[in-house]
Every structure is written in structure tokens, then in C-alpha cells.
Write a structure and sequence with these properties.
This protein has helices at 18-22, 39-51, 87-103, 123-139, 145-153, 165-177, 184-194, 201-213, 216-233, 265-280, 303-320, 325-328, 335-345, 352-372, 377-388, 390-394, 400-408, 413-419, 423-427, 442-450, and strands spanning 12-17, 58-67, 81-85, 155-162. By secondary structure, the protein is an alpha+beta fold. The longest helix is centred in the C-terminal third of the chain and has 21 residues, at 352-372. The radius of gyration is 27 Å and the shape is elongated.
Length: 458
Amino acid sequence: MEKQNISLKEPTPQIIKICELLEQKLTIPDYQRPYKWTIKNVNDLIDDFIAFQEKEAYRIGTIIIYDNKYDISDDTKKSKMEIVDGQQRFLTISLIYRALKAESDSNLLSLIVKDSELKFDNTISRNNLKDNYKHILSRIKEFDDSLIRFFLNKCELVQVTIYNIGEAFQFFDSQNSRGKELFPHNLLKAFHLREMNHLNQTEKISHINNWDATDANLLADAFSNYFFKIRQWSVGRTARYFGKDELYVFKGINLNNTISYPYAKSAAINAKYVSLKKNILYDYDSNQEHFPHQLDSYTVNGEWFFDFVKHKIKLVKKVKDFNNEMFKSLEENSKAQYIMQKLNSYDQSHRTGDRYCRQLFEVTLLYYIDKFGMNYLEKVIPIIFFWSYRPRIKHHAVRLESIDNHAAHWDGLIRKIRDSLQLSDILTYKIQPIENTAVNSQQLYSLFEKHQLIIKKS
């Protein structure tokens, strides 16, 4: 059938039974995140089947399918129906059916599960599928004919079929924005995937491989506690919480749009240069020159967003680990080295307020390194420390709000880093002495006192 462009057609929602779901030939695109359902998730689902089996119908969720059959923007020749959202539940249901068919002699199990094209190269997916299947086999004895009939014919899903890949991701975004299933960075992944429609499938996969291989908790931490805070604090805005309402902070310009504004030309030139270098250098890797992203700049959408994450996440990991080689290179017995050691060992460093200060220290250090590199780090670390821990010495209680106000202040060190073009501007930044101190940590207090940053009452 010749493809027609029906991208303006409304998504087609329908209620389907599990038996109807399993009879469809569905595939899971390579750019999907790994299968991460745990045995607890599996148990919860099976327990629900058992608990609600007396109901006339039981709705277990939504599955979003992209059908390329009419989509002229999809240049593949092969017809496909891809799961855009709902793969975790779909795979678990498929495992339950396989286990039932393998272990039960019920004549109700006569479906042909059309999953011949489901291939899993990801180690996380393979291990979780294997472990969950073994556990499901241990619970199959709980499925009698009545429960099998309920599972196949009365458990339902809302299947939404969408005929344009861009709309599929947009729908995925809007659906998950209303709930709490995904971290905001997962929604950003969906947004920037649909900004890559000009690329073929293989190219898309190559750009997001690093994202999928990165620990989900590290991604969440990097966006919420580092990238977002730098973007906000550097322009004097609050950065207390990063949620779905703040996604706009990481949605920027698409270099493939027909309208090219003058301010975006430098980004377009950089992108062309880096792309050309990748094509020429056979052994191009992370050690080679890459797109010159800055943490406080606007986002370049699509593949360049994933490139940004790939390189900046490495910096975050280094800054969080005070024992890495970057800090071991500090001059022995220097003020900077002493401060780094003290921050890892002083009493009461575990307190909430101290952790807020530690995070401000890390964010500010990350921002400095991103802009000025490792230059004069031994002189800059003490400046960052005395500024970041100032609220701890000054106040009895350090709250998120007080750190937020301190970090976003127009005369703060973060704003100074943003406005500075020369290192001398940072090295001459004056840390004001503190009056009316609240001595909550004698070890930190003595550091401030030693460097004459305490004004004692007469």
C-alpha cells in the first residue's frame, strides 16, 4: 500500500483484551529504555489479577503504538507497529502468557504470540526478563482455568494507535507529564527523540546509546541538582525543584528548522564542524573535540542534546567524587587539598544543611570547570568553599530556601562566574567576613576563622 500522509489524523484509542494484545505483531524500537521491571513489579501485577478476578473487567493501563503504514515521514520499506509507551507491562504480560503455556495444560492457551522480532541486546533487559520469567514460573500454579480466562479475556488495556512518529512521542510526552511514572529527564528524552526525525533509525540509536547506558539515578541527579541549578542560578532564578513544569529550560533550538535566527548561527557552524570531524576521523571518540556545549547556554535540540548529556555527565561524576584523579593532582598540603579532605571527613557533614552546602560547592565547582577548565583550581577551590559554606557558618539552620537565595543572589559567586571573561575576575572575588555566627561545626568554623572570615564580637 502506498503511504499516505495522515499525520493530522487523531490518535485511534480502543479498549483491547490481553488476548487481542498478544495476537498483534508488535515490536520494541531500539531507542526504548531497557526492560527494568523487578520481581516486585511482577508480583504486584499477578496479585492484582488474583485480587480482581471476580470483576467483569479490569483495566491495567495504556499502551501507545506507532503504526508506520501510512506515515510518509518514515522512509523504511517494512511495515511495523512499535510500542512507544507501555513496553514494561507488555513484556511482563508476554512472559506470564509464555509461562502459562509452558506449564499449564489448559485448553484456553491457544494464542499465537507474535513476538518473533523481539530481540534484546541490552544486558539489563535480558537479565531482568530471565529473572522475572523464572519467578513467574514459580507462581503459575496459582492460575486455574478461571484465573486464566480472566487474564486473557477480562483484563483490558487502552491501546492508542498513532500514525506519525513525531505525534507518537508528543503523545507519550503529554501522557507521562500528567503522572509520576517518569522523571523529568525521561520526558526530555522523548522530546529530543522527536527532534531527530531527520535522522534514520540507526543514527538515532547511536546518539542515545550513552543515555541508555547511564545509570537512571545519575541522570536524575545530574539534571535536578546540577544542570538545572546552574541554568537557573546563573541568571538569578530559583532552582529549588526540577519537575515537568520546568522542562522548557532544556528545550532550545532545532538546527534543522527552516527559520534560522542570527543568534543560532554559531551553533549551526559548530554542529557542522563537529559532524565533519566525526566523518573524517575513523577513530573519533570521547577524547576528540566535541560540540562546545556550555552548562549555562541554551540547548541545541535533538542529537546535540544527547551529545551535551554524554559529555557533561562525565564532569558531574568527577565533581561528585572527591577522591578521583582530578583532585588527587592538587598540590600536597595546599589549602585546596586540605579543604577537599576536610569536606569528606568533618563531623556532622551528614546533616541536611551541610549536604545542601556540599551540593552548592559541587555545583559551583562544576560550573567553574565547565567554563574555565582546571586552571588555577588550587586557588579557586578555597574561594568556592568559603562562599558555599557561608550559610552553614552564619545560620543555626540551613534550609533549601536559604541556599537557593544565596546561590541566585546577584552578587553571588555563581553570577560572577557567568559574567567573568577572565580568571582574574574569579580569583579576586571577595568573600565578606561573617558576623553573628552560629557555631554548628567547630571544624568548619576554625577554617573560616583561620582565614580571617569571622568578625568576632568585642
